[in-house]
Amino acid sequence: MRTLTARPVLPMFAFASACLVATVLLTAATASTSGPRFAVPIGVVLAIEGLLAIGVYRIAGPFTPAVWYLQAAVYAMGIALGRARPLPPGWRAAVSWPAFWFLVGTFLALPWTVTGLTLGAAVPFVLAGHTHGGHVGLVSLGLDWTAVRALAGIPDHGAWGQRDNRLYVHRTNGHYGFPLRIGVPAEESVLELVWSAPPVSA
């Protein structure tokens, strides 16, 4: 079983605080301009996405500055959506497209976000998937190497642990979205759950 560690480059408290403040301000601004009917769903989505982004941030390691940028782009895109005017191509390339893919990615990358959020918490066992074993790797050759883990150091398949917490990431079958899967075979897992009765005191 592999050990999951967190090495954020920049303080996580600052990132979490920035997410909270930005979510509150953007939701309040939407409520004042478009009313609570639009502000409530935007606030809920931003709050959930911000929480998942914090999970990604905790295990992003040297990529934490990129997470800062991408999360800021999400909020900037939220502000721009409230304005009825076309955006220049430069804005779309620097803000809209990165923000969109980061927004989608935080919701899809549940193993990373869950493990990031639960570091230090008492979560005995988590079942996860969605990474498809990193898509590209050398697992078929018997080597425990994948491109995703090599680049980002995140749990993309197999059993992981951190203190008393356990995570199992299923490799799933086939591919999803990005149509490529090389060297990472499909997986059908059988997990045996064993009940351990508490000791009976005399």
The assembly state of the depicted protein chains is: single chain
Order of helices and strands: EHHHHHEHEE
Strand order, biggest sheet? Answer: 1-3-4-2
Structural class: alpha/beta
Shape descriptor: globular
* Rg over alpha carbons: 20 Å
Question: Mean pLDDT across all residues, rounded?
Answer: 76
Main sheet makeup: 4 strands, mixed
Query: Which percent range fits the helix content?
Result: 40-55%
The tally of strands reads: 4
Q: What proportion of the residues form beta strands (DSSP E)? A: 5-15%
Instruction: Show unreliable segments.
Output: none
Compute the separation of the termini in Å. Answer: 36 Å
Counting DSSP H or I runs of 4 or more residues, the number of helices is 6
List the helices and strands and how they pair.
Blueprint: E1 2-3, H1 12-34, H2 36-58, H3 64-81, H4 89-108, H5 110-118, E2 125-128, H6 147-152, E3 158-162, E4 165-169
Helix pairs in contact: 1-2, 1-3, 2-3, 2-5, 3-4
